[in-house]
Amino acid sequence: MAHMKCGYRRICRASLIWLLIPAMLVGCDRKNRDAASHHPSTSQHEITSSAEPRNSSGGDEPGITIEVPIEVGGDSDNSKQDSGSDNSERDSGSDNSERDSGSEQNSEAEEPEPDPTEDAFRSVSAGDCLPIYRTGYSDDWSQPKPPEPVSCRGNYAGLFYVTRTGGSGLICPNGRAEDSWRYYSAMSRQTTTLCLRRIWVKNYCVLAIDSGNQSLSFGLSTAVGCNADRVPKPYNRIMVVSDVYRAPPDAHVGYCKKNQYDNRMYWMVLVSGGEDMVCFTDPNT
């Protein structure tokens, strides 16, 4: 009988424990819900830190909440993306600047290089006198580009007065002892033209073509040493300027003689539109 009582008490105790467990669980669940109700919910982009002080008596007081916005991962990524965009814009601007700078350099590189010969031609003005002449070889002049002007009363083997200057469309007079000097620049693709008229100086020699029968053709723009051993083809003779006169109305070769005892052979050419008379003779006579 005692054994039965003891077993009954154990059963009673076990039953009591199983009855208390649900009550304890309910109490814990209620405390959890109460605790959760004191904390505000947080959004995806904002986390708040809450401080809930308690008094010494253990009673609850209203909590003091300090909201501190904290950027979460999504915003941070956006910020990085924005920063990247800014960098991209800055980089893009830098690239544009570099491209602009390159364009300026290319523009400078595309500008035509200076042409000293063209500059020399363009520096010549109408009224200048140039110490130049044709050599007789092809269309060559004595200098590759116009030299500095000299006095129009100078003593030179070749001396030309500049009557006009212009471009490729300029047409120069083609009378006797008149000539033109043209230069085309590969740099600027422009042509400069000088119209010239020879100023005759005594005692200098020119090239001539002797066709026989005392018929001579003069290279009126040429000059040559009076004692030269050879002459360029088609020229075959050297003649010297003996005198230059104002042409009389009845100009003829007889006016070239120095006096009545002068037996040398002379040739005469009217130049400057017939206003001047140039006399030539053989320098060896």
Automatic annotation (TrEMBL):
Residues 87-102 have a biased composition (Basic and acidic residues). Residues 107-118 have a biased composition (Acidic residues). It comes from the Bacteria. Residues 39-58 have a biased composition (Polar residues). Residues 33-125 are annotated as: Disordered. This is Secreted protein.
